[in-house]
Write a structure and sequence with these properties.
GO terms for molecular function: calcium ion binding; collagen binding; extracellular matrix binding. It is found in: Secreted. This is Testican-1. Keywords: Calcium, Disulfide bond, Glycoprotein, Secreted, Signal. The protein is an alpha+beta fold. 44% of the residues lie in helices and 12% in strands. It folds into 2 domains: 58 residues, Wheat Germ Agglutinin (Isolectin 2), domain 1; 104 residues, Recoverin, domain 1, CATH 1.10.238. It has a 3-stranded antiparallel sheet. The protein has a two-stranded antiparallel ribbon with strand order 1-2. Strand 3 and strand 4 form a beta hairpin. The longest helix is centred in the first third of the chain and has 24 residues.
Length: 224
């Protein structure tokens, strides 16, 4: 009987340890996708756990440098999100610590702030030309006047064009094809597409693709 008692106690203690570890690893923000620089913030309400996406207002002063995929360095992760939120950008950490000195995809601040809108305008021009190849390419076209429906149609057209296997995810090989075509003369594209994969799963899903581009209206202020 004493042996059985110790056996059951051991089982209970083992299960208790497992649940403790699970509780420690249970991150409510895991898998949460927050758009354009916002950070996932967990909170409790009536004993239940919830999450919300917010732009950080104040960041800690301690130095824990991070390097974004745009090859821009920040004092800590919070500062990166604060910068991205202020400029309506999607930005992601490439590595902890300082940025490597041999990175070939450096995107300057001036081009970084304009790139999401410029990319949307490129897609808009390409789509119009594909609809009517007889029209000349209008490189002065601007996305400022797009409606939300027009914006969504343009982004869907480009997504479907890149998504060759039609699985609704831009996978690594498909993204690499875009890099091969454009990266040589547009270094900001590297940071843009790398930052679009927000949920840490391989590839860019449609919702992530949409989050990466500016919305209509106030989203185009950086071009004015």
């Amino acid at each position: 009987m004493e042996t059985e008692r110790f056996f059951y106690i051991s089982v209970i203690l083992c299960l208790f340890c497992i649940f403790q570890v699970r509780g420690q690893d249970d991150d409510p923000c895991k898998g949460v996708v927050c758009p354009r620089g916002q950070m996932c913030v967990p909170y409790m309400d009536s004993g239940k756990s919830y999450t919300t996406c917010e732009c950080p207002q104040d960041c800690p002063e301690e130095s824990e440098p991070v390097c974004s995929f745009y090859h821009r360095e920040f004092n800590n992760r919070c500062e990166m999100h604060k910068y991205a939120c202020a400029h309506d950008l999607t930005m992601k950490v490439m590595n902890q610590g300082n940025c490597p000195t041999d990175n070939l995809h450096v995107c300057s601040d001036q081009f970084l702030l304009q790139f999401p809108t410029r990319y949307l305008e490129w897609i808009m021009i390409a789509r119009e030309h594909s609809i009517d190849p007889t029209t000349s390419l209008d490189f002065n076209a601007r996305a400022d006047g797009l409606t939300e429906d027009e914006r969504n149609e343009i982004l869907s057209w480009e997504f479907e064009y890149i998504d060759r296997d039609k699985n609704n995810v831009l996978d690594t090989a498909e993204i690499q094809d875009v890099f091969n075509d454009v990266l040589g003369y547009e270094p900001c594209l590297y940071g843009f597409l790398k930052s679009c994969d927000l949920n840490e799963k391989e590839g860019i899903e449609k919702r992530e693709w949409d989050f990466c581009f500016p919305k209509t209206g106030t989203a185009f202020e950086t071009r004015k």
